[in-house]
Amino acid sequence: MKEPQLIDLPKFADKRGSLSIIQELVNIPFVIERVYWIYDVPGGEIRGSHAFKEQQELIVALSGSFDVVLHDGEKEQVFSLNRSNKGVLVPKLYWRTIRNFSSNALAFVLASTRYSETDYIRDFDEFIKLRNQHE
Ligand code: TYD
Question: N or C, where is the chain less crowded by C-beta within 10 Å?
Answer without folding.
Answer: C
